[in-house]
Amino acid sequence: MKVLxxxxxxxxxxxxxxxxxxxxxTKGLANMDVEVLFVMPSASGDEDESSVKxxxxxxxxxxxxxxxxxxxxxxxQFLRVGSNLVPYLTPxxxxxxxxxxxxxxxKDFKIYMGQKYKFSGKYGSNLMEEVSRYAMVAAEIALxxxxxxxxxxxxxxxLAGIAAKRISGKPLVIxxxxxxxxxxxxxxxxxxxxxxxxxxxxxxKIIAVSNLTRNIIINKYGISPEKVVxxxxxxxxxxxxxxxxxxxxxxxxxxFLGRITFQKGPEYFIEAAAKVLKRYxxxxxxxxxxxxxxxxxxxxxxxxxxATRFHFTGFLKGExxxxxxSYSDVYVMPSVxxxxxxxxxxxxxxxxxxxxxxQSGVAEVLHHAxxxxxxxxxxxxDAIYGLLKYPALSQMAVKNGLEEVxxxxxxxxAYYVKEIYSEVLKGK
Length: 428
Known about the structure:
Blueprint: E1 2-6, H1 17-31, E2 35-40, E3 53-56, E4 61-62, H2 69-75, H3 91-112, E5 115-116, H4 127-144, E6 149-153, H5 158-168, E7 172-176, H6 180-184, H7 190-202, E8 205-208, H8 211-221, E9 228-230, E10 252-257, H9 266-279, E11 283-288, H10 294-304, E12 310-314, H11 319-327, E13 330-333, H12 343-349, E14 354-357, E15 370-372, H13 377-389, H14 391-405, H15 410-426
Parallel strand pairs: 1-2, 1-6, 2-3, 6-7, 7-8, 8-9, 10-11, 10-13, 11-12, 13-14, 14-15
Antiparallel strand pairs: 4-5
Helix pairs in contact: 1-15, 4-5, 5-7, 9-10, 9-13, 13-14
């Protein structure tokens, strides 16, 4: 079986759990004799290709993919993604605007014929333009390669998956690692929501990383339950042996590791830290990550008067993540809405007792992590204090947690994903 897979990032160049999950899943699929062609916008050349073949979209020239450009674009007519929404148009004005955009798209396509797009692969201000052009290149890649199934990870690649499906006629599986409701709460970006819903509508099957995410897909996007399957994430154990490190401080260390954004709940971690320090002063708190709430978090730490006990490291990856886990005595993931959450598994694999929010998908598969509501900073502070104060509690969490997380393997997830591939192929 051969899969054309679309992703936005792949280790070692990642900004979060998405690239890590793609890497783990593709390794598991390779063990199941599934060949994966993994397309990413901008590859650096140092990606691990032991289990996949990486296709760098920036190296693919868009040639005349159809004898008739107009016919080609009728199949992939959604590719022009505008960043501006135009309200209050009459039906006649709307029809005129659509026709103008269609002609402009044909013109753009002819201009870029035979040329390559240079993608940044980042999450910058021209993201929507890159998402659109990535879909154009995806159609070209679909024509050049043989494959059985298309697999697209998260909303950035859904248009690419749809383009490949429309050009090739092959079934499309989309993998929902997060929704706009997870990222933005009630302040939903309507353009992203529409792209997500389009991907879900066009997909033959939808993989959700947790039942929490599955319920959001069904209830918020109006998708039939029969179409959505939960496959929980796992953790890649390779290279996660306990590091031999020398600690420069005597105090205990409590760690938050993730994007410093609304979704990850950094503010609750800070408030709980202030409460813990009043009862257990011999501890330091570390916030490892970056994001739009970083400056506000720094100001709040200063206002609470805990800056001498609170450290901001910036974004960590690779060996630095493993080193941070080795330093840690407690790991905390207080996410407001976490579709899954791989970092708690990595922490438990590194023998770190872990606290997670009940509003996380990983809470569905972990029984030996302490679970609290993200908003309950008193319960969070009590859990941190308990793990710091009582060694027996910490030791029990480490022992049972390690045994539990050892059962969550990517090979198991890959087995279920391969079954999904087989199911959609039967339906064609």
